Amino acid sequence: MFMSTKTRTIATGRRGFTLIELLVVIAIIALLLSILMPALTKVKEQAKAVICRSNLHQWYVCLNLYLSDNEDKFWCGWGNTATESNWWMGAMRSYYADINEIRCCPTATMPEADLNGNATSAQRPFAAWGYNPGFFSAIDPDGEDDYGSYAANGWLENFDEKSASMKSALAADEQKFWNKSIRVTRGGTVPFMFDAQWIDCWPDSTNTPPPAEDTAWSGDNFFWRIVQNRHGNGIQNVVFMDGVARKVGLKELWKFKWHTTYDTSGPYTLAGGATSASWPDWMADFTDY
Predict the structure, then answer these.
(1) Percent of the chain at pLDDT above 90?
(2) What gap in Å lies between CA 215 and CA 87, rounded to an integer?
(3) pLDDT tens profile 9-33
(4) DSSP assignments along 93-127, one per residue
(5) Residue 197 carries which DSSP code?
(6) Which of 6, 8, 85, 122 is deepest in the core (most CB within 10 A)?
(7) Cα four-point dihedral sign 102, 103, 108, 109
């Protein structure tokens, strides 16, 4: 004896979804995803910023290990030629085991060019520095080129250990170098390492801001190397000589004690009379300091 379709459905207690019901469920899922995706993206970016600050703090740990082994003296840094230089990447290499990732902010891990000099898809401010075949090989024991997206404060170098030609070129600025960490008495105001376009910089209070967010650094425009809007809303990360790694406002960078005679009330600070007109359009609405 055969049961009707209706009778079989009642007997089994199961019924499949109709096409309309499936479409409604799919629509609801799509709506939820559209609501959640911006939040998930924001969380992801926040996580990258936290990892960036963690990386910078690890560099501070490496710095202290280096200083304890070198009579409290900083490395010489740029020495006028690659072979006469001792950049932070090489000076601290034994303390970070040459781990490439720690040299990079998670938002900027790809150099603008590869080892063969071919352009990549990396765009400023989300681009790492390097590679530069042969330039960094003088300090890389494996003969490979370093890359990264952080820089060290160039004034935190030991002037006395620079090459003779470099000492001559920088004679007028000799008093600005910190030379030893013991000279840094207010570490919370002195930047050590930070998001940047290049490996080092020697900023001064009169250096101008970059005209655009993706401006490439050039010459003595040292804040062009530093100002990197990688973490949104005019924010980037810095670790200071007291070991605190924190987010700072892009305009706040002009307020720090970069070198021994740096003017913390210079023309790009509120104390120095800066106004919205002092800044390029892309920075004008960021917080003033």
Answers:
(1) 66
(2) 24
(3) 445 556 667 878 777 888 888 888 7
(4) HHHHTT-GGGGS-TT--SBSB-TTS-B-S--TTS-
(5) S
(6) 85
(7) negative
